[in-house]
Structure formats: structure tokens, C-alpha cells
Amino acid sequence: MSYKRTWTRGWFITVQTSETLRRLAVLKPKSLAVMHGSAFVGDCERALDDLAAVMRGLHGS
To answer: Where are the domains of the chain?
Structure first.
């Protein structure tokens, strides 16, 4: 197991980040929201999968 961690623009990324996002995508949410921020309504499954790919690229795993 890799313990490499990356801090990127306010995101703390580990090897588990992209897998966690993929597991959330499987739940097929209808909306996504961040604390004290905006909400997104649309293809949330794809949005989470795309974000997982970006995080995987930023982490380099």
C-alpha cells in the first residue's frame, strides 16, 4: 500500500481518493453539493468518475 500523499490546491489526495470517488459514483446520486458552496444537478455519476480520473492523474497513481 502506498502512503504517498499530495496536497493540491486545497485537496488532500491519497491513493484511496479516486477509488472513493468511483464508489460514490456507483450510487448514482442525483445531486452533488459541497459544504458552504454550490450544488450540481445533472450527470453526477459521470462528474464523480471524471473527478476520480483527474485526482488519479494529480496523485500520479
So the answer is: 9-29+42-61
